[in-house]
């Protein structure tokens, strides 16, 4: 009986055990998780947007701050906190996984709108912005890294366009809505109710629905093919944190060019966030119109990235970065010479368009050059420099505005932005394979 059973088993087809293959890379293959992360990053942007219209006016009208340097302390605190956290987020997401870092960022965000509502002094507002910077560093950095993980090498520009578009469209919509709420109900508390809703929804989605993506990066790393031209042969698979920092910040031409351009880009964004509403108000614009201008710039920025990110996958990264920086410089000059609503509308549109050309392509450049094994750390270091621009911009613009006036500060930042574009034009090489003729790394899943 036993021998009969063995004979039957020997004559039967061998049993197969279903095993999960490597994770599939690509936008279509990961559409559900990618769309979810786009929605989560929109909520991240909304947390930032709740401040864009209201806080500069709150500083002057409720807390009596008149010195521009004092007014911009909240942006300085935000920028420093976010920059440092960006750096840590890249390292932590490699060590602990992407999802825990994302969830931690949302936990930190929960008290922010409550502190802004109840703040009895400006110090509370500054403290709230330290928490906001930490939260933004953890959440926004991680959604960037997770999208790069999912889509693979061919569609990074498009992926970053979707990511940044969602975030900054949410900034724009929230800035517009909070402007109208402030005009109708006052500067507090109604405009910050949106922040409470955003934090609750973002924490819930990130905890319950978002899935870990680090395995996608590991799969890509296993099939990584060096460039045929040998350009990155000196960048080995395994680099220490210090080596990644040096390459991203100073040594590697494309990575370091992107880092300085990111810093200057957010330097002028810090200026726009902190001083433009004050400039508009000093020319007699009401809160409603200030809200429109505060929303228009990130709206064009957000929508434009849906186009520029995808086009950089076909036309290359460098033309968009150089052109975008120069267009931003021209837009800032127009803000400085303008004195009425229509001129500032045009300037806001141009500034948003220039930023849309730069933002997703800088991130895609990091993804092009950095090896998958240390790419998350490189993204974090790039974002350390980029969001450090908020702090530099707040300090520089505040001091210049106090000494020479807001318009002089705008002129100086316009000049710095033009110089940054020239640095990219001279130092950065094209990083995208379709423009260099270098075949892209083979997809690990075919």
Automatic annotation (TrEMBL):
Membrane-topology descriptor: Multi-pass membrane protein
Keywords: Cell membrane, Membrane, Transmembrane, Transmembrane helix, Transport
Gene Ontology MF: a single term: transmembrane transporter activity
Annotated Major facilitator superfamily (MFS) profile domain residues: 34-432
InterPro entries according to UniProt: MFS, MFS_dom, MFS_trans_sf, MFS_Transporters, Sugar_transporter_CS
Region ranges (Disordered): 1-21
PANTHER family: INTEGRAL MEMBRANE TRANSPORT PROTEIN, RESISTANCE PROTEIN MDTM, PUTATIVE-RELATED-RELATED
Protein name: Putative MFS family arabinose efflux permease
């Amino acid at each position: 009986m036993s021998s009969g059973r063995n004979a039957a088993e020997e004559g039967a087809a061998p049993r197969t055990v279903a095993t999960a293959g490597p994770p599939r890379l690509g936008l279509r293959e990961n559409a559900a998780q990618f769309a979810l992360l786009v929605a989560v990053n929109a909520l991240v942007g909304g947390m930032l947007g709740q401040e864009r219209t209201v806080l500069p006016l709150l500083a002057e009208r409720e807390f009596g701050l008149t010195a521009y340097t004092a007014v911009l302390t909240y942006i300085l605190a935000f920028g420093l906190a976010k920059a440092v956290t960006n750096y840590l987020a890249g390292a932590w997401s490699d060590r602990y996984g992407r999802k825990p870092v994302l969830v931690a960022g949302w936990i930190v965000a929960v008290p922010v709108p409550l502190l802004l509502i109840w703040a009895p002094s400006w110090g509370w507002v500054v403290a709230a912005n330290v928490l906001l910077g930490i939260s933004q560093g953890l959440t926004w950095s991680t959604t960037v890294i997770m999208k790069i993980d999912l889509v693979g090498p061919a569609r990074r520009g498009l992926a970053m366009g979707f990511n940044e578009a969602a975030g900054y469209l949410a900034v724009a919509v929230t800035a517009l809505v909070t402007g109208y709420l402030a005009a109708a109900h006052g500067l507090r508390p109604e405009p910050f109710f949106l922040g409470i809703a955003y934090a609750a929804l973002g924490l819930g989605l990130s905890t319950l629905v978002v899935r870990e993506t680090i395995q996608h990066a590991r799969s890509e790393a296993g099939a990584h093919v060096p460039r045929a031209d040998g350009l990155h042969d000196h960048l080995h698979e395994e680099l220490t944190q210090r080596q990644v920092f040096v390459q991203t910040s100073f040594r590697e031409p494309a990575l370091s060019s992107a880092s300085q351009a990111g810093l200057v880009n957010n330097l002028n964004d810090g200026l726009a966030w902190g001083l433009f509403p004050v400039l508009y108000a000093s020319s007699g614009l009401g809160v409603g119109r200030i809200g429109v201008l505060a929303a228009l710039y990130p709206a064009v920025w957000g929508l434009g990235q849906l186009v520029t990110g995808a086009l950089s996958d076909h036309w290359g990264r460098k033309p968009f970065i150089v052109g975008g920086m120069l267009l931003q410089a021209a837009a800032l000059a127009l803000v400085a010479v303008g004195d009425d609503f229509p001129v500032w509308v045009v300037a806001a549109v141009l500034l948003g368009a220039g930023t849309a050309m730069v933002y997703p392509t800088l991130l895609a450049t990091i993804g092009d050059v950095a090896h998958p094994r240390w790419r998350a750390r490189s993204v974090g270091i790039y974002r350390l420099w980029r969001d450090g621009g908020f702090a530099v911009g707040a300090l520089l613009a505040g001091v210049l505005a106090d000494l020479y006036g807001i318009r002089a500060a705008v002129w100086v930042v316009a000049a710095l932005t033009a110089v940054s574009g020239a640095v990219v034009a001279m130092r950065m090489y094209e990083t995208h394979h379709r423009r260099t003729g270098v075949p892209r790394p083979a997809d690990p899943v075919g």
